[in-house]
Automatic annotation (TrEMBL):
Lineage of source species: Eukaryota, Sar, Alveolata, Dinophyceae, Suessiales
Any one Gene Ontology BP term: regulation of monoatomic ion transmembrane transport
Stated name of the protein: Probable protein phosphatase 2C 11 (AtPP2C11)
Family: Belongs to the inward rectifier-type potassium channel (TC 1.A.2.1) family.
Keywords: Ion channel, Ion transport, Membrane, Potassium, Potassium transport, Transmembrane, Transmembrane helix, Transport, Voltage-gated channel
Bilayer-spanning residue ranges: 100-122, 162-185
Membrane topology summary: Multi-pass membrane protein
InterPro entries, A to Z: Ig_E-set, IRK_C, K_chnl_inward-rec_Kir, K_chnl_inward-rec_Kir_cyto, Kir_TM, PPM-type-like_dom_sf, PPM-type_phosphatase-like_dom
Species: Cladocopium goreaui
PANTHER family referenced in this protein's UniProt entry, alphabetically: INWARD RECTIFIER POTASSIUM CHANNEL (PTHR11767), POTASSIUM CHANNEL INWARDLY RECTIFYING TRANSMEMBRANE DOMAIN-CONTAINING PROTEIN (PTHR11767:SF103)
Biased composition range(s): Low complexity: 22-32
Amino acid sequence: MPCCGMQCCLFRRRRRPALCPETTSSSDSASDSAEDVYHGKPEPASGKKQRRRQIHRILDREGVEFQSKGIFHVLQTRRTCAVFLLDFFHTVIHLPFPGLFAVTLTVYFACFAFFALFWIWFTDICSIGLDTYRDAFYLSVETQMTIGYGVPDPNFGECWEAAILIVVQTVVGLMLDATVIGVVFQKLANANARANTMIFSDTALLEVENSCTYLRFRVADMSFRPLSQATMQVYCVQHHRDTSQPRGIRVELAAMQLEEPDTDIHNGIIFLGLPAMVSHKIDYSSPLAPDVPSTVTGSPTPAEVKTYLGQSPYLEVLVLLSGTEESTGAVVEARHSYTLEDIFWNRTYGTCVSINGQGSMLKAVMAQHHAHRQLQLLCAPKEKICGAEDLEHGVYQILAKAMRIRRDTYEFNVFDGHGDQGKKMSHFAKQALSKSLFSNNDLHTEPVAAIQAAFRDTQEKIEKEHRHQAELSGTTAITAYQHRNHLVVANVGDSRAVLGRCSTPARQTVSAVDLSSDQKPARPDERQRILAAGGTVDQMAIPVVQRGGVRWIRAGPERVMDKQGMGGLAMSRSLGDLRLHPYVISQPEVVERKLDSRDKVLVLASDGVWDHVSSQEAVDIAGKFDDPKAAAREITGLAGIEWRLIRHCDGLAFAVQKTIFDGSDIGVLLVYWGVILTNIRDTVYCILYTYENQIQPVERDGMIHTALVELSCQELHATDGRLQRRVRCQMT
């Protein structure tokens, strides 16, 4: 295997020499040491962006159904062009058809031009009568490609020099034609095309049997004539942290011993008449197992394997399947690869081979070739999120607010609309933001820039398609993008993202870590930005019934207003709200974070929750319940109780807080991770819950009136440290 731009090492299990240490500086390694990277400020005018080092696959997965085209992405230095001239035939064969056509055209043109020089030289000797080089070029083409001549004397005055030149050019033309035909034939009959009919499962699975861990994947031959004498070779390319290397990374290549097919019993031959299972047992000689002294034998526990792989900076399993095509006798090699993001933990493949309806033939259901399911645990764990066991596996797909993009990549969104067209704005933003984000090719390599671009595109679409509705209406938007253990949170508005994190892996308490900051005019930096843009920040004027009359006072949270005092938005950033631009902007604040085994739950909620429930209370509730749905119901219920208390016991506060409110903006999205969060796909579930009740505003004289009454309330008691209150209210 050729050496890459970093380094390349030959691997023996107990002794790991580094053959090619890299010489690149280590300045990039320090940039990834910080746990949080904050991107709240506008981009500099120079347009420079923070780039994160992205490790590319060695073997591509760019074919149909995530299959490989067999192209190795390895950067080779000091490549000598003369080496390719020694094998010019295969070098030309591997050219794409446009390149092959260009090379063929160039060679033929050069051949015609070369012999045209001889014809112009012989024009006087043989009395050919060629006046220009163009005439000589045409004669050269006719000599090599046709049997007729456009000259006065086809016999060239019995000139032997011309006869010899005709023979030489004809022979050269025949050899050139034969070479081109051979190249085209070999390209059309290339075994790489036959390799495309070999379909590998798009994911590999880690299964536990008898306390041993197995890596398994499937392969199937879609052709009616499967390869004969097919053999399988599997290798593991792994990065290891090594401070002795300039960049702290050592790359190792190791062969992986297969249990299926068994090399001792079946000589490693795979029968491809049916979809075949390939299995590798992870023992201490496996490159997927942690390092131990050479005297230790046996297999590591599943927990040890999971921890070891979770700490691996990068790992890629390379699969090489070779066999003979019986029709042509050509050797076909199909290639595939699996990285950590392609590996599922504790899952198994379903059945894809059955009997047809008449019971007379075997049937391979290729639609089930990639299908796999969760293994049923013997005893369902009931530990809380900081316990010692995994939670029940599964992913709740909640409309379009929680989406799995591909493999170990998820997107979670919460949108809270406001204004008369708030529902339409939140629905449109949800669709537009996800569409813009998924269509960005740089999402995996530069997620921060991709998310910022998605917010800009969404705002531009709102301005273009819903300008009238978005004048006085808009929506908050908080997005969490997770790729393996990399989390990016972007926010506009007063919705919030909170991470529940255990102080230690074994401790049963969880603490709250705010991943976003509420963007309200009361924030000093936001107030300064609004005032610098020409806007104003003030409280809203509220009518209050007092002693038989109505009095206007300024109360409640500070709001963004224009120079004329119009507007009154309680947040400083949002999507929509076009009348308040440029005071209210749509640029998100972005936070990056690397997750580890202590990060257990992510809480995304609207301001209807955070106005009444603290971040710590939310993660405490999320960690107290076994059922995620019960936890979400408790959080929204707690916020609803507080809201009801404000409504019934403090009419002024209620009027300031909500003019018309039905409880629908109390919404929470909970995302749970497994206890051991690794680079392999792990436990992820999410649940969305909203608090809604049937509170109808009072219509009087054709106008809506809410809570403009004086109430006297008495709280009787609270129990259990929870907000379970009975309130007695009397309207006066």
